[in-house]
Amino acid sequence: MHPWHQEFTRLILLYLSVFLVGGLTGYLVQTLLLLTLIILFIQLSQIRRFEKWISQGGKGEYPKTSGIWEEIYYQIYRIKKSEKRRKKKLRKLIEQFRQSTEALPDAAVVLDNNDEIEWANKAARQILGLQQIDKGQRLINLIRYPEFIRYLKSGSYSEPVILPSPVNNCIILEVRIIPYGSGLRLLLAQDVTQLKKMQTIRKDFVANVSHELRTPLTVLKGYLETMKDMDDGGSPLLTTSFKEMLGQTERMQHLVDDLLFLTRLETQQKKQQCIDIPALLSQICKEGDALESASRRIELTLESSAHIMGEEQDLRSAFTNLLGNALKYSPDDSLVEVRWYQTETEIILAIKDYGEGIPETEIPRITERFYRVDTKRRKKIPGTGLGLAIVKHALMRHDAQLEITSKMGEGSSFNCHFPIKRHCND
Length: 426
Ligand code: ADP
Fold this sequence. Notes:
- This protein has helices spanning about 5-25, 30-55, 65-105, 120-125, 145-155, 195-230, 235-265, 275-290, 310-330, 375-380, 385-395; strands spanning about 105-110, 115-120, 160-165, 170-180, 185-190, 275, 300, 310, 335-340, 345-355, 400-405, 410-420.
- The chain has about 425 residues and is an alpha+beta fold.
- The strands form three sheets. It has a five-stranded antiparallel beta sheet, with helices on both faces. Strands 7-9-10-12-11 form a five-stranded mixed beta sheet.
- The structure holds adenosine-5'-diphosphate (ADP).
């Protein structure tokens, strides 16, 4: 029987027997009152025992009792026991998490919304020089590099920042911030010294090889041109061979020039000045038109007179590459639209062609070095596959983004988005 029914039956039986005894002795009211008082007293003392047990945290075994009170004690005891088990499991999980993050080779620091340190792992202590006592300190008081402070305060964490380690400036760190929860941020710092070293070796190698190839190629081209001039057309095989060899030498020269330009973009310090973009675009479009054997195809619309803070050679190269591609990858008689305009937040160069377009799956890859979309027609179009890589790098140096949209059979748009902070004339 349920303890509650048991309790109820016991109470009824008690009252019935007292009712009988009271009726027989003639003291019905008094005995009933007495019984009620006794029951009340027993319940009050049970409540007191219960309150005492619970106020002590309900620890250990519960007091010996019977009936519904035993059931109440038992249920609470059960809840507490399962709660204890849950807590133990949770504690174990947290401990395992702590141990795994402690073992991470990358530094991990949890920051609150005041940039104060909430928690840091062992690697953070080793490569960022943080200590146990730094908990609650503002991180910018401990890592004082201006670019790090700017990055932390910017609130835009899509790209990581590269810094020397505050402990040893031979160690190069890639620091990334990941916001989570309500106002919390996880800072991850990875030692990229080896990676950076390898990148420098690769850059130096490409730059040296490209540089060394320049002279032999010039000599080769010079001789080939002389031999071509001397060719009297007596042997058609020789004539086509000279033409082909010259073409391939020129292609290699372009490749070497593009590689050297890319290396320069990656390594050289920025030398910024205010550039008159409308004038630059007018010049590039005029040059583009002059190269076209067919009728004028370029339509330039200058809706903004904005000048941009940057490097003229880089921007000239980026815009020339984009315009060159638009002309190259569209039919001889189709229009290429060049538009310079601005919104509240950006200044935009949009280059639109009505060519064959780019397959959607290829768009993310065409800015990779040497990547060329593989179609029969395009194989015949000369190119190095480095043009868009140059565009991407040149734009990156100007905090600008390249947006590419294209539809097969309808054409492509290449839009360069410059942030308004680059605007330098009024
Ligand atoms: P390249 O033109 O020398 O091959 P790029 O890096 O300039 O190298 O371009 C990479 C590839 O992207 C090209 O091979 C071409 O397939 C594609 N592409 C670039 N611009 C356009 C465009 N306007 N229309 C169609 N395809 C294009």
